[in-house]
Amino acid sequence: MTASMTMTQALNSALAVMMARDDGVMVLGEDVGYFGGVFRVTAGLQEKFGKHRCFDTPITECGIIGAAIGMAAYGLRPVPEIQFADYIYPGLDQIISEAARIRYRSAGDFTCPITIRLPFGGGIFGGQTHSQSPESLFTHISGVKTVVPSNPHDAKGLLIAAIEDNDPVIFMEPKRCYNGPFDGYYDRPAKSWAGHPDAEVDEGYYRVPLGKARIVREGQDLTVLAYGTMVHVTRQVLAEHGIDGELIDLRTLVPLDIETIETSVKKTGRCMIVHEATRTSGFGAELSALVQERCFYHLEAPIERVTGFDTPYPHSLEWSYFPGPIRIGEALARLMRG
Amino acid sequence: MAKSGKTDTAAPPNRPGLTFHVPEPPFRPGDAVDYSFLDIPPPDRIPRPDETVEARQVHDLAYGLVRVLGDDHEASGSWDPRLDPAMLLRMLRKMALLRAFDDRMFRAQRQGKTSFYLKSTGEEAVAIGAALALDREDMCFPSYRQQGILLARDYPLVRMIDQIYSNRDDPLFGRQLPILYSAREYGFFTLSGNLTTQYPQAVGWAMASAAKGDTRIAATWCGEGSTSEGDFHNALTFAAVYNAPCVFNVVNNQYAISTYPGFAGSERTTFAARAIGYGIPGIRVDGNDILAVWSATRWAADRARLNLGPTLIELFTYRAEAHSTSDDPSVYRSAQERQEWPLGDPITRLKRHCIARGIWDLERQEAMDLEVASEVASAQKEAETHGILGHGLHQPDTTMFQDVFEHMPWHLREQCEQAIRERALKWPERP
What positions does the domain Dehydrogenase E1 component occupy (chain B) (predicted)? Predict the structure, then answer.
């Protein structure tokens, strides 16, 4: 049975399916219990599974993640929510020094199967503490996986796969896409997920494997590497410019599906990387280096990186900050000239 | 399927199973509200000790509730600061102004003039009482619900609204979420938006003031929910170690968005009692009694000025409205709570006290309410001549790149040129 779902509903469905299948799956975080989360992703879970399976926590990200690690050490599969990705920093020591290394330092004696959910990204007038995209902080750590869905179908399948994974997973949810595929035009009516093919979601259990990218659109002219919200924005821009681009939704940043990337860039000879996060030491830098190392003799033009600027996310100028259609369009033009 | 936990040794068969405790608030939507479980003492159940008392001699202050205004609206007891009528009326006016300001800005958000607002309704005494008890030169490290400090220190309303609107006169260039003010000249530290980060910073400022032989002290605020953050405990540790001249305020307004204080530890003890483990005085205060707030703040400030170090004050109050314009509390708490709240409303209580003292009457109250409303309205009108929130219309794109560093490095200069080029393409008529 499938149903049309928003990304919020699909994520909720993933949690409900996993809580029903495995009584070791526990959902915890600020306001996730009775209230159901500020973005409603955990709505109804406490009512359905009880307050011992889905519960509110003290406001301490360090405590939430540390406690989740301990629950995992016992043998549970906790799924902590951090209310905004921007709030994760007090919890970084527990992620970097602890969760990421528990398997390694104990030689597998202990493991850490936790999935940390992080709503991230801008475009909601959230200012600098409700808009950031900190994925490269996590991809830089050895021992955690980083996953970023772009649509309801993948969000559910990836979240289930992340919960079942025996390593810690940072699961980043593009909050601008919770209710619809944002195409970069903030000044046009918002699109909903209704009728979108990727919003037809199986109501039961299914997995979208970690470490596997998806070719959203096949093409010959160039390869676009994107994830999260930027998949939809880039797709729109390619259509406007009439460019036959091959659009790859990475879905998992670590471990990366390098085969799909390499095959595509060798075919098209051109590569554009798009992310909303700040540019310097962003994940685009890693992608650019990998493409250069593996596809150098196939490249017809320099690799283009389109990103947010290296500033805090501004409130009133957020659409000047956001890597929107104009910035992407300029990069496309340079790439196709080259 | 679930993996069961590993056990090292077999437990004796007759040992009872452990139970997992998750706190549960007293009321949910639809529940009848009964606050009779709260112990609301009369004024002076715990008399005011001398400022030079040792912390370990005043543990009872952390479990009591300092009050000055009784249910009869009279001020009494040793905590009564015996303020002169001019000060009482100043307090009343500042609180009324704050409420009018919050109401007007909330409506402005609903009218689409800004993206966000956050009221302090019901908590006016917390910020205004403390700000008026501190010296004007003392440094405040507030959380996001103490806009009353700015009002108490006569910060211009127009500039506050400019910030809320992110308009072309916004002193922060539209960079910050509305209400995240910064006002160094007014002793108001730049607001972060993240929780409790200001607590250890206040301690550092106080340490610096002490290290330099200065006379100014620091004060900081956070919510009861935020006491869970590590920064709260880091701050208290540092303050205790260095005897920092710092007043810590925990505003216990009963809600961290949807979550009741049980999830911050209130089932077992008070927030004021957090101080005891650090060896500093903790005082629990009726946060809706501005005379009690003033008196406790002055007690703590006096101690700090006497080189007796930090004090923690819990302000017991009630968040009468939503967490913010993004929140709807009717889905998680009983609507009856506000009317049943046993500590009343801070403005009403001071008003009744002033009337009881014969320095005020309802006619003057009505006139004052009109005056503060019109003061806010005219500030709003003036601010609107500087614009309301627009999609980046009010600030040149260069402002996005300034102040990342003192001097702009090459990569930001390049990105700034990119932003300017994009704007010219997007709005050719408005470069």
Answer: 93-387
